[in-house]
Amino acid sequence: IGKVEMNDYLVMVPNEDYYDGVPKIDEIQCYPSFDSDPNVVKNATAGILDYGFSKNPSEVSSLRALDNIKLETVDVPYTRILWFYQYPKK
Length: 90
Hints:
Strand order of the largest sheet: 1-2-3
Mean pLDDT: 80
Distance between the termini: 53 Å
Number of domains: 2
Helix content: 10-25%
Strand content: 5-15%
Order of helices and strands: EEEHH
Number of strands: 3
C-alpha cells in the first residue's frame, strides 16, 4: 500500500517481495465506487481510472468508445432473497 486517504482513494504499489518477481505495474489508483457510479466514466475519460465496474449498459457503451481502457466481462452472482417461514414455528 503506497498511500491511503480514507473515503477518498488508495494507491497500491508493487510488492518488492512478491513471490513471482516485481509486478510490471508502477501503481494502481483505487477510488470508492458504487453500483453504476457516474464517476467511472468521468475518471476513465480523464485517464485516471485503473479499475472500475458498472452494470449500467449506457456506461459500458461510453467506456467501450474509449481507447485508453480495456473492458472485461465478469460474471458476478448477484441475488436479493427474501426468506419467508424459514424459522421454526411455535
